[in-house]
Amino acid sequence: MTELSTAATNDSIAAFEAASQSGAADYPGLDTWRSLPINQQPTWADPEVFAASVKELSILPPLVFAGEVDVLRERLAAAAQGKAFLLQGGDCAETFEAATADRISSRVKTILQMAVVLTYGASLPVIKMGRMAGQFAKPRSSNDETRDGVTLPAYRGDIVNGYDFTPESRAHDAGRMLRAYHTSASTLNLIRAFTTGGFADLRLVHQWNKGFTANPAHARYESLAKDIDRAITFMQSCGADFEALRRVEFFASHEALLLDYERALTRIDSRTGFPYDTSSHFLWIGERTRELDHAHIDFLSRVRNPIGVKLGPSTTGDDALRLIDKLDPNREPGRLTFITRMGAGKIRENLPPIVEKVTASGAQVLWVTDPMHGNTVTSKNGYKTRRFDDVMDEVRGFFEVHESLGTFPGGLHVEMTGDDVAECLGGADPIDEAAFEDRYESVCDPRLNHMQSLELAFLVAGSLAKR
Ligand SMILES: O=C[C@H](O)[C@H](O)COP(=O)(O)O
Ligand SMILES: C=C(OP(=O)(O)O)C(=O)O
Ligand SMILES: [Mn+2]
């Protein structure tokens, strides 16, 4: 989000004009999705609250600027061409309650630390992106949840209903879309302040490690930070100017699941005349909503943001080609990212035919691994979890496949937090099932904790460095 300031400096008039546009009402095709089949949408309890919320959202200021979105597309194009690496991480489901300065800053610090490990280890620019400031809507395997014989609607993310297991909390309340917008705005505000106001200065590389519990990954990071310090001191003595290190670009992303919300935040950019979904820089389509002729693909095919699509184990090469035709008909590097989430046991078999077909078609997509969603299991004591070894193994498999096909493994997409939670099993300072009882906090999927996130970053840096 340095890009806010860069874009605002270079292009301030256009950015502010774009900000004042509420438009998009008559833009052709933006509402075609409404007549198509659509999955995983809420059933709002009160139509009047829904109408009022959508109306208000459609005139509120954009959360991100079109100019920033364009910069991200260029950065992702570099990654698609093997010249940069995407690091995308954050909660499975953000909550309104956890949008506090402490929680947000520890997540941002952890992402910055992971990025330093990757940049230093791989000598590649790293694009930093949070699953943050809008990751509030969740697709679910089941519409309902039953506890002790009581059945209620499943939790679908704070933008739809509450996690508390009561009928009132689980009702689908459209007023929550406004709270999601405002929570996203304050989260983005804090991220922008952190990443442009000096907190992300590379000369503070040690500071980002403070406040986290000492552990093996922490120590390894500290030693790397010392190397970076030495390099910076050396370059400073040579007269290098480090002002540029004060700021980092940091982009926001979330799953574009709730199309009423996404549509209401879509604006026509005054510079280009194109629609941009201004709820976030990058949006992805989930594994459960990527049917070709359904609403999600149609809507996202019509906005200029860079788009991701999750590809699970049932994906075929032809599916991938059809997605490219719909979402990236002009074959524009940076436009389309495929986020594969096959499972550790399947990636080495399932990924190659897809990559081969895409490569043979001449398309240049960005390949990213999500080593989380194909590796979910239930622990003996009943928690949704993932084994850290499986996560690492899927990442290794992803690198092996791309190595053998001569394509570029361009990014890592993870569910993680900066907090010392116990949700995924294993790691260098191993988390066991008993720890879940006290330190399992996720309201949806299990996340890597601070240490597991750093450990994974070291693994990926090593694999990138080998290439
Ligand atoms: O985050 C992803 C999905 O929302 C999640 O994995 C679905 O989980 P469920 O199978 O518990 O509904
Ligand atoms: C729902 C998610 O993933 P997928 O669509 O890959 O299951 C997610 O990223 O939280
Ligand atoms: Mn998830």
Task: Explain what this protein looks like in three dimensions.
A hairpin with a 5-residue loop joins strand 12 and strand 13 (384-386). Helix 1 packs across helix 2 (12-20). The strands form four sheets. An eight-stranded parallel beta barrel has the order 1-2-5-8-9-10-11-14, surrounded by five helices. Mean pLDDT is 93; it is low at 1-22. The protein has a single domain (2-466), classed as Aldolase class I (TIM Barrel, Alpha-Beta Barrel), CATH 3.20.20. The longest helix is centred in the first third of the chain and has 22 residues, at 101-122. It is α/β, with parallel strands linked by helices. The chain has helices at 2-10, 12-20, 47-59, 66-80, 101-122, 167-170, 176-196, 216-237, 259-264, 295-301, 317-327, 347-361, 388-405, 433-439, 450-466, and strands spanning 85-90, 126-130, 144-147, 150-153, 251-255, 266-268, 275-277, 282-285, 307-311, 336-340, 366-369, 376-378, 384-386, 409-415. The relative contact order is 0.16. 42% of the residues lie in helices and 13% in strands. It contains 15 helices and 14 strands. Bound molecules: erythose-4-phosphate, phosphoenolpyruvate (PEP) and manganese (II) ion. Manganese (II) ion is lined by residues 92, 373, 415, 444-445.
